[in-house]
Amino acid sequence: MKRMKLWVVVAFAVIGISGILVAFAIEQTKVKPIKTSQIGEPPQPPWEPPENATLIPGLSSIPFDLSLDPSETTVSKGESVNITVTVCSTEKVDLLLVVGTENYTAVWVPPELRTRLHPELPPGITAILDRTEISVEADMVTVNLTLSIGDQAESGIYRLEISAIQKTSHGSVAVGLPFQLTIP
Amino acid sequence: MISSRKLALALTMNVLILVTLFLPCVWTDVQFNSQLVEPLKNWSFEGRDYSIPGDGVYRCPPWESNNNGWRELRGDVNGDKVVDIFDSVMVNAAFGSTYNATDGMYWHGPPDFPGPCPYCPHDPNTDLNGDGTVNVQDKVIVNWDFGKETNPLDGSYSWYTNGGGDYVMLQWLEIDVVMALAGEKLEFSFWFYPESVAPDGSQNQARAEIYYIYDYPDIKDAHVSGSWTAPTELKWWNACVTAILPPTTNYIAVIIHGKPDFKAWVDLAQLTTPDYNLYYTYPPYENQDTYPTSGTCIDWVNAKVCAYGNKTTGQASAYSLDWSAIGSEREAYVQFNMNPAIGNSPVVYEEDDFTVGVYWIAYGHLGAGGPGVPCISSVSISLYVYKWVYIPPYWRWEPVKTYTYTISSYDHPNQNVTILASLSWWMHISPPFGSGSYSVAPKVRTGAAGTIDCWEEGFAHADFFYDPYFTLIYYIKISD
Question: Which residue blocks in A41-155 are alpha helix, DSSP H?
Answer without folding.
Answer: 111-114
